[in-house]
Design a protein that fits this description.
Length: 275
Amino acid sequence: MFRKTSGSILCPTCGRLTNANAPVCLVCGRRNPGMWGFAGPLGRLFRRRSFTDVVTVVCIVLYVASLVVDPRAALSPRGIFDAFSPGVEALFNLGAAGSIPWSLGRWWTVVTAIYLHGGLLHIIFNILWIRQLGPAVEEIYGPSRLVSIFTVAGAVGFVASNVLGHPFTIGASGSIFGLLGAIVAFGQKRGGTFGSMILRQYGQWALILFIFGFFMPGVNNVAHAGGFVGGFAMGFVLSLAEVRAERGVDYLLAAVCIGVTVIGFALSIWSAFVG
């Protein structure tokens, strides 16, 4: 069974054995350590699955799907940066963000747009950065906190972009800047020589990428800045893995992020093909 509501479990906070249905952990005093039967399964899920690999696969699958929906647009590039670019209608139906979808009540697009990309170079560039930064953030904060940082940062970036009137936008770059922001937050929290080195190195990367965005066509620098701020804030709010192991609230927050994303894609598909 997925849920475990009886017998012994490991407390999500202290890692000691306690009862699944106990009102408080007998060792550390945490309330409801069994999390209504979901503590163990959620912990195993985030320890066994690489979120970086999942994001990579989802981005590639959705990119291919966006090309299949409108192959004519993919085969009609206007330049090198538009090679194999999905059509606007296909991206809109799959969950692109922007002030236009936002004005139509498509609130979920601030998370679904993270996984959509506008061209071959776009998705290659973003996946390379995700695979570079994702494992680093996972090691620093933990796997479930990585899920939360990636999702919240991307959503914050798109909210900022929507508010400032960007009509149509997609891509994981806001989340990527969020990963950079979380690592910068780690450097500042850690302090000392090592912390200063991390802060300087990743801060420089973020600055260079942000400046580089002004010289590239179609880059949403507002989403980049918003994503960095969101990731930096999450990095300060969440505990470091070396300070405190992930616990129930971290698993729940990650599960909520995943759940909202899945619901968002379901709503996009429903709106496009059923509603």
